Amino acid sequence: MSAHLHSYDGDIVAWANEQAQLLREGLFSQLDIEHIADEIEDVGKSEQRELANRMVKLLSHLLKWQFQPNRKGSSWEITIRNQRRAIALHLKQVPSLKAKLNDAEWWEVVWGDSVTQASKETGLGMFPASCPWAFGQILDVDFWP
Q: Is 26 left (phi over 0), alpha (psi -120 to 50) or beta?
C-alpha cells in the first residue's frame, strides 16, 4: 500500500483505514503522525463532552424536579435515573474522567449550562448561582431534591 492515498481533509474514514493498515504493516515512517495525534486527543475530548452533556441533562432535570414540584412526572424521573446510571457507567469505563469532577472550572461551565437549559425549559430564572448538591448526592439513586 502506498502512503497517503487518502487525505485527512478529503475522506477521513478512508484516511483512518489507511493509517490503521500502515500501523498493522509496521510502516511507521509513512504514517500521518500529526493528524493521528489530533484524532487520539479528540477521543479524549469526546469522552469529556459526553460526561459534561450527561451531567448537564441530569442537573437540569434535578433543578426542574426541585423548583417545579407540581410538574414532577415519570418522564423526568426516568431521565434522572437513566442519566445517573449512564454517568456512573461512563466513569467506570473511563476512570480518568473522575479528575473532571474535581475541576472547579469544569463544574462552573456544567452548572451554567444546566441552569440555562432548565431556565429555557421552565421559564424560571431564579436558580442557585452554584450547584447546591455534592457529587455523591447528584448520583445517589435515593436523592430527590
A: left
Q: Confirm if 118 and 127 have CB atoms less than 8 A apart.
A: yes
Q: How many CB atoms lie within 10 A of CB 113?
A: 17
Q: What's the distance, CA 89 to chain centroid?
A: 12
Asked if 63 and 115 count as a contact pair (C-beta separation under 8 A), the reply is yes
Please check whether residue 72 lies inside any domain of the structure.
Answer: yes
Residue 40 lies in a domain: no
- pTM (two decimals): 0.82
How many whole angstroms separate alpha carbon 26 and alpha carbon 20? 10
What's the burial of 125, exposed, middle or buried (CB within 10 Å: 0-12/13-18/19+)? exposed
Residue 120 lies in a domain: yes
Grid cell locating 4: 497517503
pLDDT digits (tens, 9 = 90+) for 58-90: 999 999 999 998 898 899 999 999 999 999 999
**What is the residue range of 126's domain?**
48-139
Total structural domains within the chain: 1
CA dihedral 33, 39, 43, 44 (to 10 degrees): 60
Count CA within 13 A, CB hemisphere, residue 27.
Answer: 13
